[in-house]
Amino acid sequence: MAKLQPELNEFFSETDRLLHLMSSTAEIDGVHRKVIAEIVHLRLSILLENNLKRIFSKICCGALYLDGSVPNLIVSHRSMVQAEAAMKTLNRARNHRPKWNDSPNIRQSLEHLIHPNDHCITSVRNFGSHLTDMRFIRNHIAHRNDGTRDNYKKLIRRYYGASVPGISCGTLLLSPRVSVPPLIEVHIRTSRTLIKDLTKA
Domain-by-domain residue ranges, the chain? Predict the structure, then answer.
């Protein structure tokens, strides 16, 4: 039977490295530290998306939560490959594309596989705003186009209380005006809490 412990262990090990990296840059020049913060955020986003995909795929195969409880499945699958295919096609007129950094999309991906009242669905719903913030920053770091800029401006208005121009992603992630500890650390630790809650660790 598939187990969720490897994903929890891997995620905490990798994010320990990210936390250590950020703490080791405290004395580095601000411009370079902002670039490092953006790279760390991209790495965190990839780790989170990949682990969410694997965790949900394993749950769809009947993996127990880490407290020993059983997920409430609508239909169980024999392999992660089958589960991932079902997320896209089961009971759908058109193929669905799972996006593992978008809470509503994740829930839609699982609507025919896991009962809507199951713990994992509630968990990903509760962390929806965190996933949205992560996605807006990640996309703007990676693409920096008009679409990503519009969403990024929403975060700037929320964190700064106004449409402040010239705020880079690195500045947002490190500014004490936005958060103490810095937002990059908050995102790492909140992502760890998400994975821990999701797996009932």
Answer: 5-128+182-198
Distances (CA, A) of 9 to 70, 81, 196: 20, 22, 10
Interval 183-191 mean pLDDT: 98
The stretch 116-144 carries a mean pLDDT of 98
Q: What share of the chain is helix, strand, coil (3-state, %, to 5)?
A: 65, 0, 35
What would the two tokens of residue 169 be? 């992603």
In contact, 90 and 75? CB cutoff 8 Å = yes
Query: Helices marked H in 77-198 — which ranges?
Result: 80-89, 103-109, 119-126, 128-142, 146-160, 169-174, 183-198
**DSSP 8-state code for residue 73:** B
**Number of other CB atoms surrounding residue 175 within 10 Å:** 17
What's the token pair of residue 14? 């990798």
pLDDT at 1: 77
What is the phi/psi pair of residue 114, to 5°?
A: -125, 140
Report whether 152 contacts 137 (CB < 8 A): yes
Structure tokens given for 121: 């669905």
Assign residue 44 a region: left if phi > 0, alpha if psi is -120 to 50, beta otherwise? alpha
- Average pLDDT for residues 144-162, to the nearest whole number? 95
Say if CB 201 and CB 8 are below 8 A apart.
Answer: yes
